[in-house]
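Continuing the series of single-chain predictions for the mutant panel. This is the parent chain; the variants come on the following pages.
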Amino acid sequence: MNKERFKEITARYPALRIAIVGDYSCDRYLEINPYKAETSIETGLPVYNVTRVRTQPGAAGTILSNLAALNIGELWPVGFCGLDGEGYELHRALEQLPGVQMKHFLQSEEQRTFTYCKPLVMNPGKPPQELNRLDSKNWHPSPRVIQNQFSDSIRTLADSVDAFILLDQVDVSETGVITKSLLKAVDEITTPETNIIGDSRRSLKNWPAIDYKMNLTEFQRLTGKSSDPQPAITDLARQKKRRIFVTMAENGIICGNPDGTTYHEPARPIQGEIDIVGAGDTVMANLAAALAAKANSQEALQLANTAASVVIHKLGTTGTATVDEIESLL
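Parent structure:
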């Protein structure tokens, strides 16, 4: 991609409206100073002294943060948080991002806020050392009234946004935002022209015929094909009549198109220490933004792959990539 084409695509970003539908988490980073270690008098166990707490939106919130970093004009989160402290932090962090419209983001007394609590030991001159993560999740089905509101939000936004992103992040089906009823609503609004892309950590099986993004392990689990993925990606794209994007870590990204064409974008060289957390969400955000801005599949791959290279070199956080940062690597 030459500089002129890059400028042409990214110049459209401020006029885009994108809805990000899915499971939002509160990512809390607890920075531990190892030089302030103590031993508990009561238990005799080591005490980790937290000297700084950072909060940022995670899961679908990471995708939204990446879109905000790209200067997308309007961002519509569709999801929920609880009426708890983590929910307060998450809601505040979302509404402070530029372009975010909170009308379809719900606060519920019946739900707890999906939270990833990440203790980090901060040794000077070294990458942060992450200890065991502490997760808070909902293990019961999402209340029917909330499910209905999300389905209504999908239908309402269908005529006013340029793209939808769906992210299913929960471990147990029906406990988050992407439920059977929501997928039914998605199917109702989807046409061959609808710009909509989905990702699920559990499975995309039985999802509507939209663009799919998944990693290689998820793709192999979905298709049962463990050999060369490229022919199977092409077959699935033809079957669904939609684009299929498969990320392969150090082997880059493959896109299969409904017309049978396939593109492979190799991974960019690694420079020093890396942290891959959030790289897939960065890919998702940049694919959706580029495609909504009229990039073709190959151009979208190039932009997403380059953005992922930017964020994996940001340590101790789930990073984002700006247009300027992407351009500097292109």
